[in-house]
Amino acid sequence: MRALFIDAEPVEQEGRAGVKLWLKSGSLVELYDWGFRPYFYADTDSKKDAAAIGRLDVKGAKVVGVEKAERWVWGKHKELLKVYCTKPSEVPVISRAVRDGLEIGCYEFETPFKYRYMIDKGLWPMDWVHYEADGDELVSIERATGEPGSLRALAFDIEVHNPAGSTDPARDPVIMVSWADEKGAGVLSTKPNRGVSKVFSDEAALLTGFCDMLRQKDIELLLGYNSDLYDLPYMKERSRRLRIDFPVGRDGLTVRKRGGGLVVSKVGGRVHIDLYRVATFLDRIGAMNLPRYKLEDVYAELAGKPKRDIKKADIWKVWDKGDIDDLAAYSRDDAECTWFIGKQWVPLEIALSRASGLPLFEAVRATTGSMVEQLLMRHAAGRSEITPNRPGFGEVTERAAETFVGAYVKTPPPGIYSNVAVFDFRSLYPSIIIAHNIDPATLNCDCCKKDGHVSPAGHRFCVKRQGVIPETLKELIDARAKLKASMKKMDPKSTQWAIADNHQWALKIIANSFYGYLGFSRSRWYSREAAESVTAWGRQYIQQTIEKVERAGYSVLYADTDSIFLLLGERKKEDAIALLTELNKGLPEVMMLELEGFYPRAVFVSKKAEEKGAKKKYAMIDEGGKIKIKGFELVRRDWAKIARKTQRRVLEAILKAGSAHKAVEIVRNVIADIKAGKVPLDDMVIYTQLRKEVYTAKGPHTAVVEKAAKRGVKIPVGAVIPYVITKKGKTISDKAELADWAKDYDPDYYIDHQVLPAVLKIMKELGYTETDLKVAGRQARLT
DNA sequence: GCCGTAGGACTACCA
DNA sequence: ACTGGTAGTCCTACGGCG
What are the backbone angles phi and psi of residue A199, rounded to the nearest 5°? Predict the structure, then answer.
């Protein structure tokens, strides 16, 4: 039988231990594999040790088999013992006895059992398998090929009666559950209304009705927004209090708290995707940058239009009034927006799951680090290499304390320039890792003492045996290149193209994370020497390239990590392209310098306190009139919209119209509007994320949190706080007030601390001073 | 007690 | 809970002044 492999879970029944597999062929199939034994490795080849390990009995947990195994351990070929246990839960117990009791080192004793199973069986989630079964018992399974499969999905959202403002499952009932899927949308509620598609006698019936619907529709993929933390735990708690079952899954619902306030809600037998998790993931990897990631923010960004909105605080009022037309429509809209977002992001998550080997549920909640790790574990196993153990607490602390030098950034001379060309290295760090075989296990090998790759940081890497990291990375990069090539032959509007695009994106995301993973203190494959060699080679390549560009007669304006900005001057684009070709001849095979683009005009500014140019801050306009802005206040959410908007207009006036005069007019008008109190409060809102539980220093955003706490509103860690600097108070922190509570704004603050600083650094390059901008009617010095 | 400033804490950016 | 490099804000402590 052919099926899509979804997930696996360890199970224990009647003393037997095995694995439950979730497959999809038509609909979901549950199968059991009772024939797979958990194991770990012991670092010894002595018969005496083998015998001692074989005799172990820790409170009834016994070793059921010991066999020899040849594996690579940190670049050395070794003979180890593979120690089998009966149940997965016995692995930690027995391996501890081996380590602490017999003082024999162990490996892979903390590999979660389901990963152990998937890795050893060669199963990749969201990919196809061929299997044979006898009843519900698996007989055989192996990986097959095919396009990624799809799952039957449904998005949902709940509304809660909230007269107290906040909601509390001890008190406030669920009043609506809305849903949306391929076929349409609907609202389940306990009050009848035109907008309500199904009415239930009470809340218990409503919750049960929702579960019935999932069962009837045979939903495999459940989509929510912040449903890990809110909807599912809320419904579960309400059900508990109502003393009813809540069979939202085929196999229970577990709500688990992870470290750092993270909550994960696992729906057994369906894949639950919390799209808020996807939003924060995309934010972290820099694929998205919004001030906030509420459902309406994300929807507006993706759909290009705003979402219907009700003030959350008013939900109960509308409900109590009995006229719930609006509420039903709003609730339904929430589900539809969630569905819309899911349509865009689920394919990427499926691609990430396939590319990393993490089951979809885990992939959605994974960091790029754990994706890299999963992939490395799979590749390591494939080449008989041991997966290094996780570092202990002490080790992590030590690693975190040892810092290393990163990338090179050139200070740009501030000014406004014409005809800039930008070159950049394609995947600089991944290319370096592959070109120089950088891996903790190839570091200081015994075989290449004379002829190894020696990094500018002074570390040597093997030239004979490729490391698991370079090997895995090369596979990703080659696969991506192949995909990109095949995409050229596809119709860009086809589903096939969209699938390939998500896949290539997933491969890129993972490939870009390898360097960070090498330097990550909790990494299994951590190596400071390896990480600092990557950056050292990176600095060497960029600096040598800068020298060559300068020797060719160009002046290099700016450079950061892997990019070079040069002034074309009197030369033509063709000259720059010829130079590029020349530069590439001197680079290793896998490395490639590319033309990023030509820019007719560019702005670099000086640092606020010094005359020197500011790094990581520039704006350029390309030949198509498209503006690229980096680092400026206007790309930062912790600046008020009025400052960001004004700075953008000023930059546009200079880059597009080339008019400083216009820029001055803009600034003067904005200042006048602020003084006159004409600017809407919305434009004064500053967003700052609450990143810590406890602060040593006071700041506007911590002050806002304190004030909210006094009113009984708890702002959780991770929240992005919107606040306004009001007239009331002495210091800025005193004046800061939660946006919803702010009645006015302090014009002086917004002029002197927001608009002027943002705009002045640009105007300074054109010869203007603060007074030129503040005092109306004065003649501009330059135009 | 007031003023100016150096330095620390903090956030969000670039690559 | 992937890295280092960077700009910039706000607050506090501190020294000088009178």
Answer: -105, 140
Distance, angstroms, CA A254 to C1' B4? 58
Sequence length of chain A is 783
Q: What is the pLDDT of residue A718?
A: 87
Reduced to 3 states, what is the DSSP secondary structure of residue A431? helix
Q: For B15, which residue's CA is nearest its C1'?
A: A561
Separation in Å: C6 C1' and A363 CA: 32
Spatial contact of A430 and A515, defined as CB atoms under 8 Å apart = yes
What pLDDT does residue A779 have?
44
pLDDT of residue A783: 40
Q: Please check whether strand B approaches the CB of A648 to within 7 Å.
A: no
CA A408, CA A541: separation in Å to the nearest integer? Answer: 10
Name the nucleotide nearest A526; use CA and C1': C2
Structure-token match 């000014």, residue found: A415
Q: Which residues contact A452 (CB under 8 A, 6 or more apart)?
A: A445, A460, A461, A462, A463
Calpha distance A215→A210 (Å, rounded): 9
Q: CA A666 to CA A781: how far, in whole Å?
A: 16
pTM of the model: 0.93
Helix (H) or strand (E) holding A274: strand A271-274
3-class SS of residue A721: strand
All residue ranges of chain A with pLDDT < 50 are: 777-783
What's the Å distance between residue A749 CA and nucleotide C15 C1'? 28
Rounded alpha-carbon distances, angstroms, from residue A307 to A112, A278, A312, A341, A344:
42, 19, 14, 12, 16
Separation between the CA of A500 and the C1’ of C2 (whole angstroms): 25
The CA distance from A186 to A332, in Å, is 6
Nearest to A766 by CA among A645, A667, A631, A675: A667
pLDDT of residue A235: 95
Residue A693 CB closer than 7 angstroms to strand B? Answer: no
Instruction: Number of helices (H) and strands (E) in chain A: give both, helices first.
Output: 25, 29
Give the C-alpha separation, A744 to A736, whole Å: 11
The b/e string for A524-550 (b: 16+ C-beta within 10 A; e otherwise) is: bbbbbbbbbbbbbbbbebbeebbeebe
Task: Note the pLDDT of residue A127.
Answer: 92
Q: How far is the CA of A612 from the C1' of C15 (A)?
A: 29
Residue in the block written with tokens 């010894």 = A44
